[in-house]
Write a structure and sequence with these properties.
By secondary structure, the chain is of the alpha+beta class. Helix content is 43%, strand content 14%. It contains 10 helices and 4 strands; from the N terminus they run H-H-H-H-H-E-E-H-H-H-E-H-E-H. It has a 4-stranded antiparallel beta sheet with strand order 2-1-3-4. Helix 1 runs antiparallel to helix 2 and helix 7 packs antiparallel against helix 10. The longest helix has 32 residues. It is elongated and about 80 Å long.
Amino acid sequence: MPWFAAEQYTVGRAVLQHGVAACVVVVTQLWLVLSGNFAWLNWLTIVLACAAVDDRTWSWLLGVRVEAARSSAPGWFVVVALVVTAVCVVLSRHPARNLVSKHQVMNASFNVFHLVNTYGAFGSITRRRTEVVVEGTSDDDPAHATWREYQIHGKPGDVRRLPRQVAPYHLRLDWGMWFLGLGSSAQLRWFVPFLGRLLEADPATLRLLRVDPFDGARPRFVRAHLYGYRFATRLQRRATGHRWLREDQGLLTDALDLAAVRSLR
C-alpha cells in the first residue's frame, strides 16, 4: 500500500473512531436529559461531542453540503488562545494537587479570580451512608404497630439485595432520597407530599417504587426511618447472606396519617 494511501486509511479510521465515540457521548447525555437531569453540563458535553464529528458526517446526516473551513486562524487569535491556555495551566496546579489530596475539598476556589476551580459533590464517596427507609402500617396504633418497608429501585433497602445498575437512566425519586439522607432539610418540601401520596396509594407514585408492601392498598400511617448502612465483609456475607449491615439511627419523621400530612403542606 503506498504511503499516502496508508496515511488516508489511518486518518479515515481515526475520524470514524472519533465520530462513533462522539455519538456514544451524545446518546448517553441525551438519555440523561430525557430522564430528568437538565443540568447545563449535559448540554455543554453534547455541544463539545458534536464538534468531534467530521464535516462529511454532518453533510450526510443533515442532507446539506457542509464546506470545511479552509482559512487558518488569524495571528491574534492564536496568540490569545496560547495565552489563555498558559494561564489555565498555571492556575491548574492547586486544583490538580487538591484532586489527589487526602483532604480533598469540593466547590472551592484557589485564586482571587475564581478561575479553574474544583467542582462536584463526588470528591469522596463514603462506604458508610445514612439512608432513609419509608415504612407504613395498617394498624390503628402506631406505637404498637407492625411496620413494613417500601423498597426503592436505587437504594439499599433490603440488606440481602444488591442494588441494580441503572445508569445512565436518572431515577429522580432515588436521587432525591439520597440527598435527603445527607441531611438536606430543603428536601422535606417534596418528601412530605410524597408521604401523602403513599397514604393515598396514588398509582403514579407507587409505580416509582420497586416494592409496595401493601399491594396498592392505603396504609393507615407512614413514617421515615434512618439507618446507617455499610458494606458487609466477605465473612459477614458468607455467614448471614447480607450484602449490607445497618444500624438504627432513629426517625426522620414520626408516624403520620393523611390528616397530619395535609396539615404540614
